[in-house]
Structures are given as structure tokens and as C-alpha cells.
Design goal:
Layout lengths: L3 E3 L10 H10 L9 H8 L3 H5 L11 H13 E3 L1
Antiparallel strand pairs: 1-2
């Protein structure tokens, strides 16, 4: 059974949620795009390797999904 533990120390979160969302929207990257899996299937290869970290003009994701990514990346760890 896996339990999630909320990380409570600020040094574990080098960027705020608002800062993270602004950064993603200012410089969209494939790793935060909701179409990543679909693009990889259509291209037949890893999109992030083919395009690089710059992303493309089709970037899309909701603020709610970006919040989930932030929480997984910076705030929640497996206990």
C-alpha cells in the first residue's frame, strides 16, 4: 500500500506554484503539455528528443493540470 506524504519544508520547493505556472506559460515545454503522449505516438519517437526542450506552437494544458504537475514534482513524495 502506497501512501503520499506532503513535504513541509520550503527548501524542497525552489519555486512557488504561481512562479511555476508563469514559467511554464512563458516558455512552454513538451514535458508539461497535455498532448505529449499523442504527439509521441504520431511521430513514432520521443517528441522531447526530436523537438528539444523548446516545445512547439501546439502547447496546451489547464492551470488545474499544471497544479497537479507542480504538486507531484515539488510537494508530494512516497512515504
Amino acid at each position: 500500500m502506497s501512501m503520499d506524504k506532503i513535504i513541509r519544508f520550503r527548501q524542497t520547493q525552489p519555486i512557488t506554484l504561481d512562479g511555476f505556472i508563469e514559467e511554464v506559460l512563458d516558455k512552454p515545454s513538451c514535458k508539461f503539455c497535455k498532448y505529449l503522449e499523442e504527439c509521441s505516438e504520431n511521430m513514432g519517437e520521443d517528441v522531447m528528443e526530436a523537438i528539444g526542450d523548446s516545445g512547439c506552437g501546439a502547447f496546451d494544458n489547464s492551470v488545474e493540470e499544471l497544479k497537479k504537475i507542480y504538486l507531484k514534482k515539488y510537494c508530494i513524495t512516497k512515504a
